[in-house]
């Protein structure tokens, strides 16, 4: 077994302040003996408007946030999965998830494919597609010190086709870094995460933003790690006072046992393979 850490923070429009929060999480994860730290969607910043979100986007080569985390990964000898923004064409940004290895190199990059457009009665109205370029491919799972990881982001959680495609490519861990709203979080967050874990027989690691980012936006929190049997093995709350981590052992023997004892043999003769 090997230890994974899930981190929780409250990003604002200040990249420097957000980097400081993540540096705290890196040090907590390293002190706990984790081999990989999973950080939320948009850890680099959360703007108060689409215009601010676009204006703050930087390439990874020019981002003080990304460069700072690469240095932390190298010093701590820790793998880091973190959600960031990158510039895109047509005055948009990319909502991306990068994997930084323990040498400080960016070795994987996933771009969010399902964008969050909602109008909740009595709640937030958000249209991510107005300022964000959608991704066009599923990133194949890749080897890490804690197992084979498949990447997705937040709203992707609502589409089991993506997690099933990752499972078909032998993902053992699926990441869902998020910034869930409070109404949708209360209604669906844990239910969806446990469902994705059960139906793919995989570990699910969901790092979440928590608390008020600005006067317009609050995130639900409740970062979780779920095992392949659907049990929550690590969790955090919803109140934000300081950056927090939770840790859990990634037991690949348990994963193999679940898959061996309850094989999910899909009937692709009567419905399409995802």
Automatic annotation (TrEMBL):
<comment type="similarity">
    <text>Belongs to the carbon-nitrogen hydrolase superfamily. NIT1/NIT2 family.</text>
</comment>
<keyword id="KW-0378">Hydrolase</keyword>
<dbReference type="InterPro" id="IPR036526">
    <property type="entry name" value="C-N_Hydrolase_sf"/>
</dbReference>
<keyword id="KW-0963">Cytoplasm</keyword>
<dbReference type="Pfam" id="PF00795">
    <property type="entry name" value="CN_hydrolase"/>
</dbReference>
<feature type="domain" description="CN hydrolase">
    <location>
        <begin position="2"/>
        <end position="252"/>
    </location>
</feature>
<dbReference type="InterPro" id="IPR003010">
    <property type="entry name" value="C-N_Hydrolase"/>
</dbReference>
<dbReference type="InterPro" id="IPR045254">
    <property type="entry name" value="Nit1/2_C-N_Hydrolase"/>
</dbReference>
<dbReference type="GO" id="GO:0016811">
    <property type="term" value="F:hydrolase activity, acting on carbon-nitrogen (but not peptide) bonds, in linear amides"/>
</dbReference>
<protein>
    <submittedName>
        <fullName>Carbon-nitrogen hydrolase</fullName>
    </submittedName>
</protein>
<dbReference type="GO" id="GO:0005737">
    <property type="term" value="C:cytoplasm"/>
</dbReference>
């Amino acid at each position: 077994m090997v230890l994974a850490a899930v981190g929780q923070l409250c990003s604002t429009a200040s990249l420097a302040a957000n980097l400081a929060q993540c540096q705290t999480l890196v040090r907590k994860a390293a002190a706990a003996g984790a081999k990989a730290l999973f950080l939320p969607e948009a850890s680099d910043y959360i703007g108060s408007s689409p215009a601010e979100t676009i204006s703050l986007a930087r390439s990874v080569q020019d981002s003080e946030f990304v460069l700072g985390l690469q240095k932390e990964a190298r010093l701590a000898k820790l793998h880091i999965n973190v959600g960031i923004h990158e510039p895109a064409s047509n005055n948009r940004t990319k909502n991306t998830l990068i994997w930084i290895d323990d040498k400080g190199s960016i070795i994987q990059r996933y771009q969010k494919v399902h964008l969050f457009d909602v109008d909740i009665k009595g709640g937030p109205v958000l249209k991510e597609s107005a300022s964000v370029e959608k991704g066009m491919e599923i990133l194949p799972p890749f080897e890490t010190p804690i197992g084979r990881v498949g990447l997705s982001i937040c709203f992707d959680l609502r589409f089991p086709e993506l997690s099933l495609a990752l499972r078909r490519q032998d993902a053992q861990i699926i990441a869902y870094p998020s910034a869930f709203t409070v109404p949708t979080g209360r209604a669906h967050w844990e239910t969806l995460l446990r469902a994705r874990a059960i139906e793919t027989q995989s570990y699910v690691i969901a790092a979440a933003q928590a608390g008020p980012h600005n006067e317009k936006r609050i995130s639900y929190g409740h970062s979780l790690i779920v095992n392949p049997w659907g049990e929550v093995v690590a969790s955090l709350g919803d109140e934000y006072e300081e950056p927090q981590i939770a840790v859990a052992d990634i037991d690949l023997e348990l994963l193999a046992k679940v898959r061996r004892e309850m094989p999910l043999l899909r009937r692709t003769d009567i419905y399409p393979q995802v």
